[in-house]
Amino acid sequence: MKSLVIASQKGGVGKTTVSLNLAYAFARAGYRTVLIDTDPQGAIGLSLSKSLTTRLGLADYVAGEATVDDALVPTKVDGFAIIPVGTVAPIETQSFGAAMADGSRLRGLLEALGPRFDLALVDTPCGFGGITAGALRACSHAVSPIQAEPISLRSVMQLLEMVKALGAEGEVAGVVGFLLSMLQTNDDASLQVARDVWEMFPRELLFDVSVPRDGVFLEATAAGVPVGLLRRPAPPVTHVFDLVASELARRMELDSARMVDGPQSLLD
Q1: How far is it, in rounded angstroms, from Cα 109 to Cα 188?
Q2: Is residue 97 classed as helix, strand or coil in its secondary structure?
Q3: Would you give the distance in Å from CA 82 to the centre of its chain?
Q4: I need a labelling partner for 215 at 20 to 30 A (CA). Which of 68, 142, 148, 235 fits?
């Protein structure tokens, strides 16, 4: 099983939006996918259903008070499950972060999930505190959203420095992409950030598509669903995540045995 952490030093860049909709895109593409919420505020649960915020989850598993099966919440999408963050009282946030910091607890969970899933996608809180550092230590790959605003470029360099520092210790997630998010094509400052990103990073670390600033995400959050399930036909922005998932599957060599290189015949 491959594991993908969504991480950023800066808050408000769309990590949870990317995590949820990318996980749904992978599941729709046929990959058995589990989405793990490591944010003590329960961002995934708040985006989907209040009932998830009261379920047993990751924190309960880490504390030894829940099994993997207790924490795993199946969805109506075949092969797609969620592990909410579970019960983390405000006073317990620091101790939860400390327990997650070395990556061993998350690594143990990923190993237990390995036979059941092709991909684990891990949503993290903002910053590079214990929780995110642990996720970077435990996961095989990392993607970072870059909000198309000037200050966001600084956080990108901080991520690369963090990965380099952790890499000196041993195994660490490899950065497989930076995804422009909240891009406003009618705003000169937003477009300039996009141009700066395209000039700053090699093409193999970027994606051909970006996530626009779109009110449909607020609609989806209000409805408690990924954007692809908001209505039929699905909003056009849904296909952004389909394209990113397809590219990431190639970069991570996800289930490479099923990949066919070159043209495929339509008729025979």
Answers
A1: 44
A2: helix
A3: 12
A4: 142
For domain 2-251, the CATH architecture is 3-Layer(aba) Sandwich (3.40)
E strand or H helix at 5: strand 2-6
Parallel, antiparallel or unpaired: strands 80-83 and 211-212: unpaired
211, β-bridge pairs:
181
Identify residue 26 by its one-letter amino acid code.
F
Structural domain boundaries of the chain?
A: 2-251
Phi-psi region of 181 (alpha: psi -120 to 50; beta: other; left: phi over 0): beta
- The 10 Å CB-count burial string (b at 16+, else e) for 135-150 is bbbbbbbbbbbbbbbe
pTM for this predicted structure: 0.91
**Residue pLDDT, tens place only, 97-132:** 899 999 999 999 999 999 999 999 999 998 778 899
pLDDT of residue 257: 44
Q: Report how far residue 110's alpha carbon sits from residue 268's, in angstroms, rounded to the nearest whole number.
A: 40
What does the alpha-carbon distance between residue 159 and residue 209 come to, in Å, rounded to a whole number? 21
pLDDT at 268: 61
